[in-house]
Amino acid sequence: MKLTAAEEQLMELIWDKQELYMKDIIESFPDPKPATTTLATLLKRMQNKGFVGYKLMGNSRQYYPLVKKSDYFSKHVNSLIKDFFGSSAMQFASFFTTETNLTDTELEDLKKIIDNQLKKKKS
What's 91's DSSP letter? Predict the structure, then answer.
């Protein structure tokens, strides 16, 4: 399931803090701050989608993530590869390395990541 842009922005905050109350959420937003009702609506939708849970602490709700950030983005990257590159990770990697203007240092770092993955697979 996919989050809207507003839900993703809120989810980033929840992933970052792990546990927070509505007042913490509001304080984390720059001015002009979103209305409490807007945030409550977003949180309710995110609960219905299975991304956010909460614990009742007195009269307040302490929100926490139900989905790991890495799992969410991994699913969407794999979907992107499937939809735009015919499920070919090789075509994606080729596009990524040639069309994103990576620096020499970034390409070297990427090469190290690939070399480490190759070593792990051989072990």
Answer: H
